[in-house]
Write a structure and sequence with these properties.
Layout: E1 4-13, E2 16-26, E3 31-35, H1 42-49, E4 57-62, E5 65-66, H2 72-76, E6 79-82, H3 94-99, H4 114-126, H5 142-155, E7 160-164, H6 172-189, E8 192-196, H7 200-206, E9 209-214, E10 217-222, H8 224-227, H9 230-237, E11 239-245, E12 252-259
Parallel strand pairs: 3-8, 3-9, 6-7, 7-8
Antiparallel strand pairs: 1-2, 1-4, 4-5, 9-10, 11-12
């Protein structure tokens, strides 16, 4: 069963069409990564699916309902998004920031309930950020802050989590730390994870399903072995790639590549 999919989606900024006639299924309880060159529509697609921006035509369907008709709080109980550059958390402690994830469940004057505090502590625990609860977010390292933002998304208690380039600005160790955390959440709690990644080998290593975009259209969507191929990478990135196998995961990986010149 597919819970989330798009049908003939068109998304524009002004008069510029970014995403064109895009229909895609998002596998449930799997990790999906979206790859493509800068400006191809990856982030735009994520924002449209999560209703941060509107689409001009087509539809996004979740659990049989068009998300355009969903009440905001109801939708926020089903899907969470961590943007590429989260808003500043200046002046907030870690616990305060994570508590924002409970907004969809608050009533009346917005006071936190016992259940809210329970979910906040759980999110801090599962992301390994419990020891930072009373520390200012600004005092943390990049990797620590990213885990705290993920904790906020988890506190939202959704089955589906979207992340726009969650490894941006992180060093290699912290990138791996974040991706392994997301993989753990998927495997142990069956969270559906959808994320934009620039690194092809990270996308192949951690994804069950990959969507390759070019100029707002899908070039190929499928399992890693179907997408991380010489032909697909040539079409999407205009490179001549040498594809091998990751000796640790046996997933396909881009060993090296050359930029294609001219019309080749």
């Amino acid at each position: 069963m597919v819970r989330l999919y798009t049908e003939k989606l068109h998304i524009s900024y002004g008069e510029r069409l970014i995403v064109k006639n895009l229909s895609v299924n998002i596998p449930d309880k799997k990790i999906t990564t979206i790859i493509g060159s800068n400006g191809c529509g990856k982030s735009t697609l994520l924002k449209a699916i999560t209703r941060i921006i509107s689409h001009q035509s087509g539809s996004v369907i979740l659990d049989g309902e068009n998300i355009s008709t969903e009440h905001t709080k109801s939708l926020a109980k089903k899907m969470a998004i961590l943007p590429q550059t989260p808003e500043s958390a200046s002046g907030l402690t870690v616990g305060e920031l994570v508590s924002y994830g409970r907004f969809p469940y608050q009533k009346g004057f917005g006071r936190l309930s016992k259940e809210d505090y329970k979910m906040i502590d759980w999110a801090l625990e599962v992301t390994g950020t419990k020891d930072y609860k009373f520390r200012p977010v600004d005092s943390l390292s990049g990797g620590q802050r990213q885990r705290v933002w993920i904790a906020m998304a988890l506190a939202q208690e959704t089955d589906i989590i979207f992340l726009d380039e969650p490894t941006t600005y992180l060093d290699m160790a912290h990138q791996l730390e974040v991706l392994e955390l997301l993989q753990k959440l998927n495997k142990e709690q069956e969270r559906t994870v959808v994320m934009v990644l620039h690194d092809l080998n990270q996308a192949a290593r951690f994804a069950d399903y990959i969507i390759a975009l070019k100029d707002g259209e899908i070039v190929k969507a499928g399992k890693c072995e179907e997408v991380i191929t010489q032909d697909v990478l040539k079409k999407v990135f205009h490179i001549d790639a040498e594809i091998g196998r990751d000796p640790r995961t046996n997933k396909p990986m881009c060993i090296t590549y050359n930029l294609l010149r001219g019309d080749n």
